[in-house]
Amino acid sequence: SAQRKKLEFTLETHDFMPYATDKNTYWTGYYTSRPNSKRFERQGNNLLQVAKHLVAFEHPHNKTFEADLLGLKRVMGVMQHHDAITGTEKQHVTNDYVKMMSAAAGDVQTSLQTIVFDLLKNNISDASEIVTLTSCLLANVSRCAEAENDQFTVAVYNPHGQEVSHFVRIPVVSASYSVIGLHGGKIPAQISPVIDTFPNVPGTASLYELTFEAKDIGPLGVNYFYVVKEDQKVNEPNLIKPTLDTTLGTSTTGIELDQATGLLKSVTLNGVRQSVSQQFLYYKASNRTDGVRASGAYIFRPVPGTVAQVIGDQVKFSTYKGELYDEVHQTYADWLKQVIRVYKDANYVEFDWIV
């Protein structure tokens, strides 16, 4: 044995990650590959946990609901495969993963809609006020068929064990709506134009986004809100003087933009201002040469001797200020856009970007 032979082994103390098989060939490509499918997997798990709650509490012995749950559980198991969770699978495999997840999620959401409707009937005097509930699976690309109606209902479920408040954002086709709460009171709402209409995605594109705060939703509780179209105008972009920087938010939480470039200049959190610079960059990928694996899903391998290229050192931007939040729309290129949003009563800054 090694002990009898008194062999001495080298003690390795350095970090083996990121792993490399050749010079300038690091296995870090999967850190950023297929972000959409990775996000879809996370959303699938969120849906599964919520479904388990509701089925257990409301219909623990319903065979249809249990069968739908089992289907989503199986797909989530498949999605834990090392290629699925890292995004290193081939495109046709990704397509199959998405197809399976979409089908299983759709089945579970049908069950959830029935359960949520049953819960809502217990909290209202006239159950006929609630129409059949559906899910807006394409809300992230400004598609929601139900929100195209002159009036619709939004059900909000809190899967946590404590009371929460949450900002609800819905793509809509008109510039003005009223939001009515559970007890008939009008709830503050804000509408802004969407930054992109996603013309390559089938379906009617919403031009605006409606935002309101669902406050104090109880633990494992569900609440609903009526949304009614009105005849008002959307907030217009604030006209900024060309010699001044743009400040959004409050003195406690906010951001500052450089007027000359439109880029982020500083962030204020908890009343503390910190200078910040933000950039989008890209590397030119190296193709397979000299038998070394090309840059791709596994390997991050830029062209040797090159550096990251900055996308847009000056951007087009528009700011929108309202009762609930301030936000800026930045356009770096036709294919790269970003929204930076500051809610008036929150202690964080929200970034949404589209590539």
UniProtKB/TrEMBL annotation:
SMART domains: Alpha-mann_mid. InterPro entries: Gal_mutarotase_sf_dom, Glyco_hydro_38_C, Glyco_hydro_38_cen, Glyco_hydro_38_cen_sf, Glyco_hydro_57/38_cen_sf, Glyco_hydro_b, Glycosyl_Hydrlase_38. It comes from the Eukaryota. One of its GO terms (molecular function) is metal ion binding. The lineage of its organism: Eukaryota, Metazoa, Ecdysozoa, Arthropoda, Hexapoda. PANTHER family: ALPHA-MANNOSIDASE (PTHR11607), LYSOSOMAL ALPHA-MANNOSIDASE (PTHR11607:SF3). Residues 25-101 form the Glycoside hydrolase family 38 central domain. It holds the Pfam family Glyco_hydro_38C. This is Glycoside hydrolase family 38 central domain-containing protein. One of its GO terms (biological process) is mannose metabolic process. GO terms for cellular component: lysosome. Keywords: Disulfide bond, Hydrolase, Metal-binding.
